[in-house]
Amino acid sequence: MDDDGQIETSLAEIQSFFDSAPPLKDREGIITKVQDFIHKNSSSSGIGKAARVVCVTSGGTTVPLEQRCVRYIDNFSSGRRGAASTEYFLEAGYSVIFLYRSGTCQPYCSTLPDDPFLNCFDASDDTAIQVHPSFAKEVKRAIKENRAAVLGGRLLKLSFTTIFEYLQMLQLIATSMNTLGPSAMFYLAAAVSDFYVPWETMNVHKIQSGSGPLDISLAQVPKMISALRREWAPLTFCISFKLETDSKILLEKARRALKKNKVHLVVANELSTRKEEVIVVAENEEIVVRRNQSKAEAEVERPLVALLVDRHSAYIKHSGS
Ligand code: PMT
Known about the structure:
- The radius of gyration is 21 Å and the shape is globular.
- The chain starts with 10 loop residues before the first helix and ends with a helix.
- Helix content is 35%, strand content 19%.
- The protein is built from eight helices and 14 strands.
- α2 (27-43) runs parallel beside α5.
- By secondary structure, the protein is α/β, with parallel strands linked by helices.
- An eight-stranded mixed sheet has the order 7-4-1-8-11-12-13-14, with helices on both faces. Strands 2-3 form a two-stranded antiparallel sheet. A two-stranded antiparallel sheet has the order 5-6.
- The chain binds ligand PMT.
- Ligand PMT is lined by residues 77-81, 188-192, 194, 221, 223-225, 240-243, 269, 274.
């Protein structure tokens, strides 16, 4: 049984999940983008220096209830953690594959208003649209930093919506990143569905409400993290997250996830305090990481990423690459 009481995931179950999933749109195009990104970053890192590439996953996966989807079940995640962490990894010299849920937070945009985004702009003189002076600095920074990272070939953004898309993309990124060995890292902050409706048993058309209460049976999504560690990218440095709403069970579950999934670190967080503090659980220690409360704009991701970069350096050194 795993940390959530599931029976241990077998590779056959994982294969059967993929076999029955709807094919990923533009699969070949995505493979080409990922391979080109990895190739460019590994060849530009210099002789004897391994390129550090991290895959940051961010946002929640959806579970469609209909093949021509009108309704779906969602996993909560604003994508703030993943977006902020991406900025700090880039600052630390990493190249980042940002695998994010479409419509969630983007790197360098956290200080822009999202409700509504149009508050940033002014169109009062009828001739030209201007950035509102109170947001000018933030808009300039978002455009500049984002463009520099993407055009400079250090940030590759790939979006998903459903659990089927997310897991297929994660698999193809992982198998490509394994070629980088220990200098590659996974930072799995996305909130991933545990239950889903198998594609072949799903209604094709919109479920009709006239037939009375809805009774749906959900199958369990195999825990893909074990496949990532054992099969797809066993050489890489892997960090998973554990989210709970009950602080009393959080640490115990994080410790069990560390052991069972054989990841290098688990970042434990509680929903209501996740922006203030996290606990990094390792084999022999547990480190509380807090944001600097004396600065309003300080984010917990800054010290968190700094700690993970240190641990990753030690892992690379230990692996002899
Ligand atoms: O986005 P924000 O609003 O900033 O919030 C950030 C966050 C709270 C979403 C983030 O910090 C976080 O905790 N993300 C992980 C949430 C989650 O899915 O936790 P879990 O306990 O259900 O899963 C634990 C691990 O198992 C995850 O790393 C996940 O990648 C993995 N998993 C989950 C389901 C599944 N079928 N297969 C998996 O491998």
